[in-house]
Amino acid sequence: MNAILLFAFPVLAIVLSLVISSRRKIDLLVLFHALIHSGLGLCAYIERGSLMGMDDLGLFIYLILSVLYAATAFYRLGHKDSSTIKNYRIHSIFLMIFVMAMDGAAMAKDLGLIWVFVEATTISSALLISYSNSKKSLEAAWKYLFICSVGIALAFAGILLLVIAQPEHATLLIAKIDLSTISPFWLKISFVFILIGFGTKMGLAPLHFWLPDAHSEAPAPISALLSGALLNIALIPILRVDKLMRQSGMGDLVQELYLLMGILSVFIAAVFVLRTKDYKRLLAYSSIENMGLIMIAFGCGGVACYAGLLHILGHSLIKAAFFLTAGNALEIYKDKNYENTSGLLQINRGTAWLWLISSAMIIGLPPSPLFTSKFLIATALLGNGYYLYFGLLMLLLAVISWAIFNVGLRICLGESERKKSLSVWLYLAPAGLLLFAALIGIFLPVMN
């Protein structure tokens, strides 16, 4: 029954939106979908396995998606849109399809099905990225499609290699794979392809090039979902195959690959945050940094795996709030170049404070949960003897933190005589996410 509600309602909402000519009613349909989505997630948390037998990893990612989807649905109630009702209807339809595809990937335990759902997220979100129909947004959407399609093709090759690795009774259901007969050589090659393929979708270096353009050009609610939810979805198949690798005695290879890709991703982010003038691109590079930190956490193992999960949760909430706040700034200034913006504290005090708080929390200042996760990651690097990685990571994080705060201060400070008010929903949605993140940082969750 829960699964029927989860997928049947958005289909019904899509059909209804085809005959609705009111933006407000379309927004309400999306909001009802988001509330049902969150309600089912809460029920699944209380009664584990009640939603299509979803396991803890899938439920964890699903619950994060539920919170972000609800926040973006409320944000849409106050977001002004100048497009035609036809374009807005199509955008809303593909938003619901995008969420359904992410739901499917979170629930599926068959790698083949996960691949199908992740590919569905690519197609549906490309149309969301190009919503403004400008030259830059269309270029970003095509770049996203091309690079992610390459990544998905590599992931598909990895899945086929996993089949080859099983000489008898091959299956893509992770729980049913017989590790006693699996070929270590083909499993190893399969994992490398899957890591690089789905890592592309995560925005990990070296195939991260789609992410800054896509996040920069997408509307604020879509940027929030891309960074806070989609990147997590791409991590699911990697962690599922990771389990096979560790159980087969190849955990050392997994850890080295994670650390290498993680450090490289943080390095790429640190280099480009110093060069970009677009504040939405800055946030996109911050997402690359945080995906790198998550991989470093899982690469260290032990208590750092808890740090990785905590970092996923904290980053999703804070970055989604930050992108929604950036949407407010774009509505105020009509310009994404931070050198052309200043005086936000005088123009719109609410957005300015949201920006400053988001800046502080995304770099890991208390009570951000990222403070604890970064501390545990740093401790794990030292504990495992990765002193060079530790020193390099601390330097790169300092550079990124300085860049984020520098941009925030330049936007918020300065003189301005004009005032600009926004809908209350544009403040409440990001504020709610930041408050939730702060509570998590104070009352740290226990994860088994």
Give the SSE map:
Blueprint: H1 2-17, H2 23-46, H3 56-78, H4 85-107, H5 111-129, H6 135-164, H7 184-202, H8 210-217, H9 220-247, H10 251-273, H11 279-300, H12 303-333, H13 344-347, H14 349-362, H15 369-383, H16 387-412, H17 425-442
Helix pairs in contact: 1-2, 1-4, 2-3, 2-4, 3-4, 3-9, 3-12, 3-17, 4-5, 4-9, 5-6, 5-9, 6-7, 6-8, 7-9, 8-9, 8-11, 9-12, 10-11, 10-16, 11-12, 11-15, 12-14, 12-15, 12-17, 14-16, 14-17, 15-17
3D structure, described in words:
With 448 residues, the chain is mainly α. The protein has a domain at 271-448. Helices cover 77% and strands 0% of the residues. It has helices at residues 2-17, 23-46, 56-78, 85-107, 111-129, 135-164, 184-202, 210-217, 220-247, 251-273, 279-300, 303-333, 344-347, 349-362, 369-383, 387-412, 425-442. The longest helix has 31 residues, at 303-333. The chain is globular, with a radius of gyration of 21 Å. The two termini are 28 Å apart.
